[in-house]
Amino acid sequence: MTQAERAALSRLEIRTRPVRRGTVLMDEQARSEELFVVRQGMLMCYVLLDDGSRQIVRFLFPGDLFALSTLVYGRSPDAVVAVTNSVVCPFDRSMIAALAVEHPRLMSLILVLNQIERVVTTDRLAGLGRTSARVRVAALLLSLRGQMRQAGLDVGASFAPGLTQEEMGDAIGLTAVHVNRMLRQLEDDGLIQREGGHVHVLDEAGLTREAGHVDRFDGLDLNWLPPGR
Question: Which residue from 110, 127, 224, 226 has the least number of CB within 10 angstroms?
């Protein structure tokens, strides 16, 4: 990135706001004049269904930009809650308009990230309707690890998902009991090992095949991006 582009991104993170674990940062259908960048921690977006159950639609890690939908609808289509003690950087929505005019490459990259997120969400939705519970759990583990790596977190074969089994279930349409059973199956088959809140991937190729996982951050075509300013 150019020096001017780096400076423009830095301006989005001038203000910081700590968010304690379990705090709802944004309610579903709430109006907001602010957008956010995640600085530290982990958050998640969810919607409440008519029967009172919760569907988690997105996990957020450092570097993620969220609440962009309020630019289009004026209200947030989902709620945002802190999974861990976190720090977010709020900025006024007018700064996005300025970014589009002054730094079209940065705005294009935001579009790229938005499309990656859309495809990842599509993968998970397809899995909810077409795959077994075991495959869904395996896919969620690999997807979370991939997001953590993209966020620059120190993640190797071993990582801490940072989620309860209930939260995992709410993301992939399973009960906590069912999630636990599938994790035990993956462990019994030598694909993973669990210890102290960490998941150790013992058989990378096997778990990837099990999940039918595709790394959506790989093989990107960015030749069309405009030049930096």
Answer: 224
Residues 99 and 200 in one domain: no
Residue-averaged pLDDT of the chain: 95
Give the mean pLDDT of 169-198.
97
Residue 47 CB neighbour total at 10 angstroms = 14
Residue 192 lies in domain: 132-211
Question: How much of the chain exceeds pLDDT 90, in percent?
Answer: 91
Asked if 17 and 87 count as a contact pair (C-beta separation under 8 A), the reply is yes
What is the pLDDT, as a whole number, of residue 36? 98
Of 225, 138, 228, the C-alpha closest to 183 is 138
Q: Which of 64, 83, 59 is nearest to 143 (CA)?
A: 59
Tokens linked to 2: 């150019």
Q: What pTM was computed for the model?
A: 0.94
Let me know if residue 147 belongs to a domain: yes
Core vs surface per residue 66-94: b (16+ CB within 10 A) or e: bbebbeeeeebebbbbbbeebbbbbbeee
The answer to whether the beta carbons of residues 196 and 185 sit under 8 Å apart is no
133 alpha carbon, distance to own chain's centre: 21
